Automatic annotation (TrEMBL):
Protein's name in the database: ABC transporter ATP-binding protein
GO MF annotation terms: ABC-type transporter activity; ATP binding; ATP hydrolysis activity
Domain called ABC transporter: residue spans: 6-236
Gene Ontology terms: cellular component: ATP-binding cassette (ABC) transporter complex
InterPro entries: AAA+_ATPase, ABC_SmlMolc_Importer, ABC_transporter-like_ATP-bd, ABC_transporter-like_CS, Mo/tungstate-bd_C_term_dom, P-loop_NTPase, Transp-assoc_OB_typ2
Keyword flag Ribosomal protein: no
UniProt entry tagged with the keyword Ligase: no
Sorted UniProt keywords: ATP-binding, Nucleotide-binding, Transport
Amino acid sequence: MEKSGIRIEDLHLSFGETTVLAGINMEILPGEFFAFLGPSGSGKSTLLRAIAGFGPAPRGRILIGDRDIADLPPWKRNVGMVFQSYALWPHLSVRQNVAFGLEERRLPKREIDSKVDAALELVGLLQLADRMPAQLSGGQQQRVALARTIAIEPQVLLLDEPLSNLDAALRVQMRRELLALQRKLGLTTIFVTHDQEEANTTSDRMAVLDGGVIQQIGTPQELYDTPANGFVAGFLGTANVLKGQVSDGHFLTIGGNRLPLACPRTGADRIVLRPQNVTLGPAGGEGIVGTVSHREFLGSSIRYLVDTADGQIIVDTLHSAGQTGQETGATVSLRVDSLNAPLLV
Ligand SMILES: Nc1ncnc2c1ncn2[C@@H]1O[C@H](COP(=O)(O)OP(=O)(O)OP(=O)(O)O)[C@@H](O)[C@H]1O
């Protein structure tokens, strides 16, 4: 299968008066597993649908390989899309569902049969080819939807929250299967999700969207370690964003606390402090003084919300069996030993 990248240039899209995508620019590499991540209403699905050719016509360019597809109807774009609702034909068998798109293309029957078999084999459903959709589990139905899309041999695969209707355990299993399949086919893939764990664990790179604007593009680790702004910092993992200033190898917070910086920084006045990088000790110790206002037992860790002069700070401490930790209402001191954290300007 031919590998093609996708390039989006200065894409704008509105529903009537409402601007939903505002100046999208990005490049997705051939064979890349790319995620669109963002909260509800951020424009992820609209962007995916614009690539597929659904919804109002956008302004700007969309290229697959060297081909500008922005003005082509959906069926001429050579993209395959899988939806959250599997959208299988209920009156057709698994085999007939997968064959549907190939029959529409009027391929010879022998070719259709072999492509359907190959696609069902790939998703591990060949033995269920004669079942009806209603006789399948949710995960199996989603595999049929995937097989149907792969069978038409699209240049790119577009996945719109394909795992959202599955229960938590199956979602984890299916996202691994999806990634394995994508790697096997080498198919350029865009995966829309609002679930950061899903994006982190599958994608080579991702774009974080908010309000129809790309906030940052990068690998999951780049976005976590060096977020471009407070939104990305908070959306990927939990973040404390403290205000202050850099001075003399320290970050001076509003509360007058001096947090030691691991390396000299300049120019920033906000710092991202991850909950696991703060140490919580008993009252009277060195550090930021605060009061535990809430605690949550998370299994492997305990999360504390601590009220301080710098605002509320979230702290995660590793939990070992038998340890009780700090109670709500306790006065504690928070220490940050060496701050190698991202700064935001
Ligand atoms: N047909 C429509 N008419 C008017 N506004 C729309 C239409 N479809 C979407 N919108 C608006 O466009 C914005 C982006 O919607 P979109 O579905 O792309 O967001 P999303 O990030 O995919 O969210 P979700 O995760 O909830 O699906 C939202 O504010 C939504 O209300």
